What does this fold into?
Amino acid sequence: MEAALPRRACRPIYRRMRLPGTLALLALALASCGRRAATRAAPEPAFDAGRARAEVGWLADPARTGRGVGTPGAAQAADWIAARFREAGLAPAWDEGYLQRFEAPFRATLGERNAFAVGSSHGELERDFLPFDFSDDGAVEAEVVFAGHGITAPALGHDDYGGLDVKGKIVLVAQDFPRESDAASPFRDPRHYRFAEWRYKATNAREHGAAALIGVRDVWAEGHGGADDLPPWRGQVSSRAGIVAARVTAAALARAGVDVRALAAPGEADGKPHSRPLGVRARLEVRVLHERATTANVVAILPGRDPAVAGECVVVGAHHDHLGLGGDSSLAPERLGTVHPGADDNASGVAALLAVARAFAAEGPPRRTLLFAAFGAEELGILGSSELAQHPPPRCPTERMQLMVNLDMVGRPAAGKVYVDGADTARGLRDLVKALAERPPRLPLKLAFGEGDGYGPSDHTSFYARDVPVLFLFTGPHPDYHRPSDTPDKIDGAGLAAVARLAYRAAREAAERDGRLEVVRTASPPPRERGERGYGTYLGAIPDFAERSAPGVLLTGVRAGSPAERAGIAAGDVLLRVGPTKLLGLQDLAFALRSHRPGDEVEVEWERAGARRTAKVRLEERR
Ligand SMILES: [Zn+2]
Ligand SMILES: [Zn+2]
It folds into this structure.
């Protein structure tokens, strides 16, 4: 109801003046409802450090089960946040309510039809073989070819597939790399550790045409002696690698007459590949089920009071989910089954978000619309923020977002230090943030400007990828990160409240200022994006992290001045191939980039509006 807007706008001005009696009435009568009055410096609403700590305590209580997607605590947390918004007098972002529900795959389980046989010897699941979590579903029966450590590294003078035909066959490869204990081994350079990763080996096998991969521990290597056991199934949801793949034990192979120690011996002696067909057949069948759970973003809205700009909006966000009972993202993998409370990550951000929301609710609406968003499923790959950026509420479309402020881990400022990323994503934003922190009362914070661009391992990436200027506030890493020891007693309530105040000032400034913040697509040195980690090879394609069932890598953007941009690739395109590597998903993009060196010219294929395009690009070096 538009007519109500100016009337509502006068209320906060009156309240902020705190004048007695007739003076107040006079002030009310004189107050302009337009922008001039609104930008006047006014006492800020209080930010309650004790309340913030208490809220972190509730969210990080063991009863919330670590707020893992698919656990009861995550749903409780979402409802609780919605109740806090309601209590603050903030309206739901949708007519249907505060919750934006979406599905996220949260656990992988082994199906019933997992089977392995080599020669005439049948293996037993979890004793003799165990599918890799990234395996495709399927059944393969074929000849087995030993392919060393499964490594193709021309730059290091090593190719386990050289002269080997593995098309349609099952390759047997060993864990890690040749001559592990040899200090002179080029594979001991951390830049080449990826050759020891199972997923790399599986993708490399697929790229060579193999139908399946079986991997065995390098039981002969020093320090691995006798370790022929299989790790427990961890239930991690991984993207599929495009090949059927499982670990098998050396003991299971030995029952069929395959002696892996003998196979490995020549390579261990001279460091060279000694791959060969084994003259034995195997059968591998894998079924990995991805269980999905419904989770939700919790979003409240405060409609702007100035009809001229109320169609524009500012988003303040923080993810509410955490790791639940541990799992693949836990840095304490041995504590699987233990609640990971996530007090700093990211109960602190939610408490700060609620403090900011209450401050705006108390002050009354600024000129532009405010959106307060608690995201779900960040830990599974910024899924919630991706959902909101793709399906925003009608009153806050992505293209009219003026600024997104992300709060992720803001409860433990060491000596007042807060990292500010994204400060170069809009013209003048960096200076603005500095000025806001200095504005009286001066905030007890030391700003540390990090990556100037808007890409990082948290929810702001979903917005910057869609050309929304962003600020990411973060009080820094600590030894309790992603561990069961990230508990509420370690939260600094006053520090958290100060960060909330900075977020509030930035959001209010963006919501009140005369002009729009003008997004800057940074061409600054690119950070290591997820999905594009290589040893220095850079394409500049920015993948969408949302779940995707069709093959290919959907792009939310390309970096300004990057090889991808020069090739004519743009946001919305789906990358299908880089060089010879077909891209089924994000992991394949990483594989493809790692397979090349800066300066290599490769053909890239992509799809736009149903049409395929190709171009040659010269890969660059990450600066
Ligand atoms: Zn986080
Ligand atoms: Zn986290």
In short: The two ends are 52 Å apart (CA to CA). The first helix runs from residue 4 to 17. The first strand starts at residue 91 and ends at 92.
